[in-house]
Amino acid sequence: MRPFPTTGRWARALAAGAIGLALAAGLATPAVAAPTWTGSAASGPAFSVPQATLDAAVACGPGTTNTSRPVALFIPGTTLTPEENFSWNYFRAFRAAGRPYCSVELPNHAMSDIQVSAEYVVNAIRAVQARSGQKVALVGFSQGGMIGRWALKYWPDTRTKVGQYVAIDPSNHGTLDSYPVCTVGCAPSIWQQASFSRFLGALNAGGETFAGINYTSMWTPTDEVVFPNLPPAESSRLNTGAGGRANISTFDVCPGHVADHLSMGSIDPVAYALVTDALDHGGLASAARIDRAVCLQAFQPGVDPVAGPARFAAYVAGAGFQIATYPRVFAEPPLKAYATAG
After folding, report:
1. Could you tell me the CA-to-CA distances from 10 to 24, 82, 85, 140 in Å, in that order?
2. Which of 37-46, 158-167, 174-183 has the lowest mean pLDDT?
3. Cβ neighbours of residue 216 closer than 8 Å, sequence gap 6 or more
4. What is the pLDDT of residue 258?
5. 243 vs 28, more confident
6. Where does the sequence pass through the membrane (predicted)?
7. Looking at the domain 38-330, which fold is it?
């Protein structure tokens, strides 16, 4: 586990360009070493990713060792790293407010097989819980708001290590947008987030939530990426299972509030207010508790009003670069054996 830098560097274009060009050139992926962790019925399947690689993906801010309150573990969305998704908004705001946080970087900008990326989340949950001495509060955007559910489902020991699950525009039931995008091939994780994918069928079979964990799922009805997020069957909504569930539309707080997908995970003041309200109330946000003054705010806390627009433009451009350049496949990755057993 590495410390999270207290000052971020904004090098999206160069970093994304180097990664994308390398992938497009077909550079070989390093061989994966034998897993160092053996699975069991209680702890789940063995990791396929080397332990050192998993550990290097976890970064933490100040005040996350032996804490008196849960640490927020941030998980980025598809096409993004934690630096790109959260360093210029949430992390700045959390540092200023003294809120403890860590993050986990998913491989390949969260574009590759989500089943493998979930191993990074499992390892991060274990590491942050051990570091903090408290149950973890997962905070994820888009794919990052859904992937934790895969970790909880197939690695049962994580359910005792997570107390709160807060998701911003999560792709819980996928998106119809994947189908036109994937007609010419697309990244594995985009296939898996298609509305009727085998991956989502496995994820949502049985109860969607677990006892002992409080879940808040929030969304914007004007989401153009996780689509449709409209009643009566919003993609982001969690419908079944144990534990506590709060399903909240931004319209519940600010009727007619217009936000797109990427702004929800980076600059939207309503989303931020719901995230922090959930964290302050055991994982269950309430639209009724949110001060309606948030409806008049341009940016969430942490976003520099001068540099913010340029950062947001770079963030959007970087996401588009990943979509355009990531190597395309023409079918969804097969389900892992542990997800089809029985």
Report:
1. 23, 12, 11, 21
2. 37-46
3. 164, 165, 166, 167, 246, 248, 274, 275, 278, 283, 284, 285
4. 95
5. 243
6. none
7. Rossmann fold (3.40.50)
